[in-house]
Amino acid sequence: MRKGILTVLSMILVxxxxxxxxxxxxxxxxxxxxxxxxDVGGIDDRSFNATAWKGVQRAMDDMGVEGQYLESxxxxxxxxxxxxxxxxxxxxxxxxxxLLGDATSAAAEAHPxxxxxxxxxxxxxxxxxxxxxxxxxxxxxxxxGYLAAGMTKTGKVGVFGGIPIPPVTIFMVGFEQGVKYYxxxxxxxxxxxxxxxxxxxxxxxxxxxxxxFESTDDGRRLAxxxxxxxxxxxxxxxxxxxxxxxxxxxxxxxxxxxxxxxWYVSAPEYKEVYLxxxxxxxxxxxxxxxxxxxxxxxxxxVYVGTLENNGVGLADFHDFASQVPDDLQSELDEVRQGIxxxxxxxxxxxxxx
Length: 353
Prior knowledge:
This protein has 353 residues and is an alpha/beta fold. The protein has helices at 2-23, 48-63, 77-87, 101-110, 137-151, 166-186, 216-228, 242-252, 263-266, 282-294, 326-341; strands at 33-37, 66-70, 92-96, 115-119, 130-135, 156-161, 191-193, 195-197, 205-207, 233-237, 255-260, 274-280, 301-305, 312-314.
């Protein structure tokens, strides 16, 4: 009898252990290693490096992956940092920024079994082991230009870039074309300082650039120069350089439109100047790429974030919400739909004809 009772108790204990084990849901990405190599702006740039890292952090929390980053202090660090992750057998290496394109392609060719994703760049022909994470920021920037044209009091708005490369000039083209579209619709003559689109020109136009993505002093200088010329809305497409512009705008009471991420959240010390931000949802693209690696569905090629798939967009108006007229907000919805259905041309495609 006693033996029978012990047997039953043992069976109950085993079943309980099995049920407990079934109830424990281990993160599906446990053991997967993801490494991010930053551009020279660093992980705390509060722009594209930080936004991409946000996607890795979310994957760490949700899927249990191991995430690490290496910061590039100068362009010669790109290759070294990539190779360090390769030597440590990382499953996915994410490089952030157009300027890492050459170092990433060289590593991809030398290590065809290593998976890569690169933000703001892609390859033609594509690599089987590299996913280019690109974004149609001209679409969101067009909306920002339309908004700025509808909100300016002086009739002048300013935009400048860090370095004249496609991931920067795409913002500038879209923004200027959005201003022009507003002028056409309303019979106004809002002027854009700092950029003139010209598909025949190198880089698709002529404009103002700081020549770097690091100097906040340069961001302040260019913003102040544009404000001196009458601009009352500034758009700095230069990563952390734009924080210098935000400081200058705060001092002068001028509006600013952020880029890449919602600056109201990433740099709240200047929140009173942000009309909106042009969003490039790199964190979502990075997170989804990591999920593809976990699910063994990763493929090389090109991802394009658009208004339609919410890869790009405009942030909330936050403190300016009550100041943006309802009619203008309705027009923005119409313009957004026009861009999605192809009836409105943002101008960026014309640069490649």
